[in-house]
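WARN retry 2 of 3 for item q-0093 after timeout on previous attempt; input resubmitted unchanged.
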Amino acid sequence: MLRLPLLASVYALFSTGMGTGMGMGKGMGMIAMHLQSRSSSRLTTNVLACKDVLSCSSPLMLWSTIAAHTDTMTTRTVHHITHPLVQHKLTLMRQKDRSTNNFRRLLHEISMLMAYEVTRDMPTQLIEIETPLETMQAPVIDGKKTVFVVIMRAGNGFLDGMLDVVPGARVGHVGLYRDPKSLVAVEYYFKMPHDMQNRDAIVLDPMLATGNSAVAAVERLKESSPKSIRFVCLLAAPEGLKKFHEAHPDVPVYTAAIDRQLNEHGYIVPGLGDAGDRLFGTK
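OK item q-0093 returned
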C-alpha cells in the first residue's frame, strides 16, 4: 500500500514536473529518486528502479507501478508481474491467430510462472528431514492450507498450472456469468472446502474487466471467512481495478498487465478477446 504522505508527495512531484514545463521524463525522474530515498528494505514483486517509473505515461500507470513494489498487503495493493517470460507469453496469447490449443498451453505456462510470484511470501514451517549426510531442519509450505478458488469458466484455465506448482492445494469453485445487457455478475454455483477459516484463498480469473464478477466472487468467498484472500488475473482494466478495490480494499491483486480501458461492450482493450471463448474454442 502507498501510505498517504508518500502518495501525496509523489503526486506533488508529478504535478511539479508537468506544471513547470520540465516534461514527463524529468518529472518521473524526480519521482524515481524520491521513491528510492523512501523505499523500504523489503519489496514484494520487483525492485523499484528509475526505469519502472520513467516508463509510466499517466498518474494511473504511476500508481500501479508504485503499488506493485510496496512492502505491505493491507489495502489497495496491485502487484504487476513484469517477469520477461510472463510478458513474452502474454504477447503470444494476445495474437488473434493463436489456435485454441496454443492459447490453452500458453495460459497453463503463464499460470505456473505467476504462481511463483503469488506464493512468494507464503508462510513456511521447519520440519526435520534426513539428507544422505545428516539430519537437518528444513522449511516447507503447507499446501493443504492453500485454496485455489476458480471463477468459472475461464478461471479453469489458470488452475492446472497453479496446481502443478502447489499440488497439495485444495480447490473451490464459484460459478458466475455476466449478463450481456447489464454486465452484472449472476451466481449459479458455489462450493468451497471445509474449514476455510484456516485456509489462504487465491482467487483465479484471467480477466479483471468491469470488476463485477470479481467483486461478487470475493464477496461470496468472504462469507466463508478464509484466513486471507488474493486475487490473480492475467489482464486488468483500470475501471475493474477501481471497482474491485472500492469493494475489497483489503484484497491484493496480482496481474501480468494493466491495459488501457474497457470498450463499450465491457471488454478490455487492447486485451486478448474473450478468454473463455479462446480457451474452450467457443464463440
